[in-house]
């Protein structure tokens, strides 16, 4: 990697991943499709509004897919796309570093 | 990795790394010891105050070491500690994902 100058692709990836709660949301979704309340359960300190905003963002960036099941009541699930699942290396490396140094 | 519940170590690592500019600063320092102005050069949009705050934080967390060389004028350099260098897997995986998807 050329560390002598900043890389725009690294910069935009780091900005996306660096947003508060995003890293945690992605880690939860690594466990498979989840409903809103399942995600909130693992991240209780995050507000509903924040989760709603982050999911819209991640959906618009193609990292998360939202599926509406026309049941009674309606069931909505969120899951990682291929692009999202490809972040597993990132979450694994943060996990490994956290276990060693935190 | 157990995705069924949040991991406090992952959470604190993600929070540290997720702070705005921190990921970029760490990437710059992967290239070796740097002076304040060298870091600013690669991240022009970041204010001096922000960089000062982040460096204090990273120093207090043991991720960065600050060395003062008693020359005329004084020379101050920042470098990653072992704990900091151990983030290379994280920065590499963000770089790889960014190159593929951004």
Automatic annotation (TrEMBL), chains A, B:
Pfam families: HxlR. GO terms for molecular function: DNA binding. Gene3D superfamilies: Winged helix-like DNA-binding domain superfamily/Winged helix DNA-binding domain (1.10.10.10). Keywords: DNA-binding, Transcription, Transcription regulation. InterPro entries: HTH_HxlR, WH-like_DNA-bd_sf, WH_DNA-bd_sf. Residues 7-102 form the HTH hxlR-type domain. It comes from the Bacteria. This is Helix-turn-helix transcriptional regulator.
């Amino acid at each position: 990697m050329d560390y002598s100058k900043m890389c725009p692709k690294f910069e935009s990836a780091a900005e996306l991943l660096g947003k508060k709660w995003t890293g945690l949301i992605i880690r939860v979704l690594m466990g498979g499709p989840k409903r809103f309340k399942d995600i909130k359960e693992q991240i209780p300190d995050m507000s509903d509004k924040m989760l709603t905003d982050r999911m819209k963002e991640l959906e618009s960036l193609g990292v998360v897919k939202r599926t509406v099941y026309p049941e009674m009541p309606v069931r909505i699930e969120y899951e990682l796309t291929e692009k999202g699942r490809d972040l597993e290396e990132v979450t694994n490396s943060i996990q490994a570093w956290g276990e060693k140094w935190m």
